[in-house]
Amino acid sequence: MDVELWDAYKKANDLGIKADAKRFVLAFIESCDDTSDMREWVYAELQNLPSLYPRMRHEVFEALVYPILTKDMSQEDPWAFFWMGQLAQNFMSNKKLYAASKYQGSTYYFERAYELCPAEDKFRLGLLSDILSWFDYIEHEWPAGILVAKDDVPKLLLDIAKARELDKQQNSLARLDRLTHRINQNTTWGG
Fold first, then answer.
1. Model confidence over 147-172: pLDDT tens digits?
2. Is the separation of the CB atoms in 142 and 162 below 8 Å?
3. Best label site of 118, 119, 130, 152, fewest CB within 10 Å?
4. What is the pLDDT of residue 14?
5. How many CB atoms lie within 10 A of CB 10?
6. Does the pLDDT value for residue 190 go beyond 70?
7. In this predicted model, what pLDDT tens digit does every residue of 119-131 receive, in sequence order?
């Protein structure tokens, strides 16, 4: 593994020199042949990503990150599930990888990480943040309505209860109360 190629990629990428960035990243991937070094490098790089739903260069994700995380998930590693949840946009935008993931979205991976290690606050907060992001989406049309089919309301209410359970500091209590109220008063369900 030639880390200098990765550094050269980052520098070219930061400078906006796309052709050089692509050349360096492909050369870096080609230089990766030791799985133990790759695993160590992948997890170190993941620690440097922004907090929720970061995007990663697709070649790096497909060739290095996805295989490492998939292998570690097969061994029930909660951190692998957590990172896969964080990186869901990376594989959901790739038809081949999304199919290989059995079309699971971020929530599935955050839930698995939390199930495997409920004592880890990062897993609890990752799942809570993911659920709250979903609530942002379904609520964004308010006051016209909530984007959920009538048949999905019981599941939504369970998700609200789960969010309340995860929100130990009760930072989202008012928001969850508001959403519950809106669901109860909404009479024009879609779908």
1. 777 788 888 899 999 999 999 999 99
2. no
3. 119
4. 92
5. 15
6. no
7. 999 999 999 999 9
Q: Which residue is associated with the tokens 């020199």?
A: 17
CA–CA distance, 149 with 171 (Å, rounded to integer): 27
pTM beyond 0.70:
yes
pLDDT digits (tens, 9 = 90+) for 68-124: 999 999 999 999 999 999 998 888 888 888 888 888 889 999 999 999 999 999 999
- Residue-wise over 11-30: b if at least 16 C-beta within 10 A, else e? ebbeeeeeeebeebbeebbe
Query: What was the pLDDT predicted at 112?
Result: 97
Residue carrying the six token digits 């990888």: 97
Say how far apart CA 108 and CA 80 lie, in whole Å: 12
Q: At what angle do helices 153-166 and 121-139 cross, to 10 degrees?
A: 140
Give residue 142's Cα distance to chain centre: 26
Computed over every residue of the chain, the mean pLDDT equals: 88
76: Cα separation from own chain's centroid: 17
Pair of tokens at residue 79 = 């951190």
* Burial state string for 104-127 with b = 16 or more CB within 10 A and e = fewer than 16: bbbbbbbbbbbebbeeeeebbbbb
Of 107, 106, 88, nearest to 163 (Cα)? Answer: 107
How buried is 170 (Cβ within 10 angstroms: 0-12 exposed, 13-18 middle, 19+ buried)?
exposed
CA distances from 185 to 82, 142, 161, 170, 189 (A): 35, 12, 18, 23, 11
